[in-house]
Amino acid sequence: MSEKENKSSPIEGIIKKVVSVGIGAAFMTEESVKKILEDLPLPKEILNGLVSNAKGAKEDFTNGIREEIKSYLSKVDATKIASELLEKYDIEVEAKFRFKKKDQSRAKE
């Protein structure tokens, strides 16, 4: 391989960084995305668009997860699960109580 093939161009580096931020945006705060992108030599409008897209991607991701959990839980019959647990298992509770004397200054309040 020649030297030219081994080295990636600055544009490729920028594209790789933008793509990786786009993918990871669902797990990052808006400030983190801004910090990562601020050192890229891109116009401010493009950077603002990328941050906005990252924010939208995060919202879409969390909304999707929320809807999946909601859909799953709507199908769960809590009464049936509780009945099965009570039929098949004994309930055992262990508790520890401790009494502490109040401070005299607090006891007067």
Please, could you describe this protein's structure?
This protein has 109 residues and is mainly alpha-helical. The chain is 67% helix and 0% strand. It has one domain. The longest helix is centred in the middle third of the chain and has 31 residues, at 44-74. The radius of gyration is 28 Å and the shape is elongated.
Describe the main β-sheet briefly. Answer: none
- Ends distance: 82 Å
Number of strands: 0
Indicate the overall shape: elongated
Give the strand content. Answer: under 5%
Uncertain spans, ≥5 residues at pLDDT below 50?
1-6
Q: Helices and strands, in N-to-C order?
A: HHHHHH
Short description:
The protein is mainly α. 67% of the residues lie in helices and 0% in strands.
Write the layout of secondary structure elements.
Layout: H1 3-6, H2 10-24, H3 30-37, H4 44-74, H5 78-88, H6 104-107
Helix pairs in contact: 2-4, 3-4
